[in-house]
Specification:
7 strands, seven-stranded mixed sheet, Rossmann fold, 206 residues, alpha/beta, 24% strand
């Protein structure tokens, strides 16, 4: 079983700080840290009947808005961190959302049947993997041929926040990783100067 780590939703704000766990969760949920979830939804080919996964969901910054949109569908929310999943489950309970299955994953060992997803969100996660090509291949296997995958990542430029420059994956490299995984790049949107969104079509039918 693969054990490559899958990261939380965004780069950890705890680095070099003395945050409590609750402060850490609140920082991860800050709207200043990443693309607004409702803006994201307007850019996705998502409909309320789909089955979608949020890989590296963290405490659910994107999971809850996705689940609300999937009013007749289902969301899988996956993370390697029990702290993140516990926070997510509390937020789901408070919001009374019953269409989400929060699951712990072992890196590349995703507990979702292959070719079962209509959509896949991978937000600020790929750059954390020690084997990004294997991560993208494992993620692509979860998609139906008609499905979509959305990757959010950091441009390979120096910024005050975000991951170290050497960990970042630029758009050209991300497009190549997607193609090598059998995905078809569709379009890219630049976000907040330092981040971007890339949308892929699912793998071609055999």
């Amino acid at each position: 079983m693969a054990t490559a780590p899958m990261a939380r939703t965004v780069h950890s704000p705890m680095a070099g700080s003395h945050m409590s766990q609750d402060e850490f969760i609140e920082a991860l949920l800050s709207p200043d840290r990443a693309l607004d979830p409702y803006e994201l939804l307007t850019r996705l080919p998502i409909d309320p009947y789909q089955t979608v996964a949020d890989l590296g969901c963290g405490p659910g910054y994107y999971s809850l808005p996705l689940a609300k949109h999937l009013s007749h569908g289902k969301l899988y929310a996956l993370d390697v961190d029990d702290l993140m999943l516990d926070a997510l489950r509390r937020r789901l309970s408070d919001a009374r959302l019953g269409n989400v299955e929060a699951l712990k994953t072992g890196g590349l060992d995703f507990p979702i049947p292959p070719s079962s997803l209509d959509g896949l969100l991978v937000a600020y996660v790929v750059h954390h993997s020690p084997d990004a090509p294997a991560f993208m291949r494992a993620a692509a296997r979860l998609l139906k041929p008609s499905g979509w995958a959305c990757v959010l990542e950091w441009h390979r430029v120096e910024t005050e926040d975000g991951p170290p420059l050497e960990e970042r994956i630029g758009p050209a490299e991300m497009a190549s990783l997607g193609r090598d995984a059998g995905l078809i790049p569709l379009r890219r949107h630049d976000l907040k100067d330092s981040q971007y969104m890339m949308l892929f079509k699912g793998p071609a039918a055999p």
